[in-house]
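A protein record in our archive is deliberately plain, so that people and models can read it alike. The tokens are whole numbers drawn from a learned vocabulary of local backbone shapes. For reference, a complete record is included directly beneath this paragraph.
>
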Amino acid sequence: MTNANQTHDEPDAEVDESPTDHLDNVEDGCGCTEIWEHMSEERESVSDD
């Protein structure tokens, strides 16, 4: 059997996380529908400019 634990050469602090700025105005704990609606509204407001 193989070992399920994996080791990484890079420390966790150096791992780049994807930016989440586009979710700053979304409430914690909301579902995917609310996130989709928020992102959709953001796109509409940008395209109206």
The mean pLDDT is 77.
